[in-house]
Every structure is written in structure tokens, then in C-alpha cells.
Amino acid sequence: MTERIAYRRVYEETSPKDGKRVLVDRVWPRGMRKEDAHLDEWLRDVAPSSDLRHWYGHDPDRFTEFRRRYLAELRDAGHREAAAHLRDLAAHDRLTLLTATKDVDHSQAAVLAEWLGRKR
């Protein structure tokens, strides 16, 4: 993760250091009102496919394979436009990727932060 790209839970307090706040989950976070999320964008099309998300089930033992499959999805046509938009955001501003996942280090937000760090 670079200094310009961070990731964390959407339920945490906002910070002036957040920069652009982008939710990268396919489904809206449980129990959160939209006005309380303080988002700049909800980029659900960059999230893992529903099939991949269900297969993974946030099992840390599957994370390496999840990461490999998710990176392959980011190259697919269904994710390509959203991924390019996210790269553009990261190139112009500090970016905080948000997820509802409890284990953020084993989430798509962590994979995206690493991927964006390499792409710049």
C-alpha cells in the first residue's frame, strides 16, 4: 500500500487524511445509512463478482486463490471500466478504499490497494 492509497472499514470514523472515499463492495454495508457513509463514490462494478465473493466467503485460507481470481476479474470486460476509473482516481488524489468486511487485510480493498500501488 502506498501513502496515497489506504483501505479500511466503512464503519470507521472519517479522517481529513482520507482523500476520496470509495466504497468497493458489491452490496451496501449492513446497518449503514447512505448519508452516514460519507462517500465520494460507490464503485460496485470494481468489486468481486457475486460468484467469487460467495466462493471466497472471507475464508483467510482461500485468500491467495481469491486474490489470483480477483486480479483476473479486474482484467475482464465487466470490471475493466470501473478498474480504469479507480486507477484514475488514485492517480489524482489520495484515495481510501472502503469495505464492510471485518478482516480488511483479507479483502478486495487490500487487493485493490496493492494492485493500484503497482499500476502507478
UniProtKB/TrEMBL annotation:
Protein name: DUF488 family protein
Protein's organism: Streptomyces lannensis
Lineage, highest ranks first: Bacteria, Bacillati, Actinomycetota, Actinomycetes, Kitasatosporales
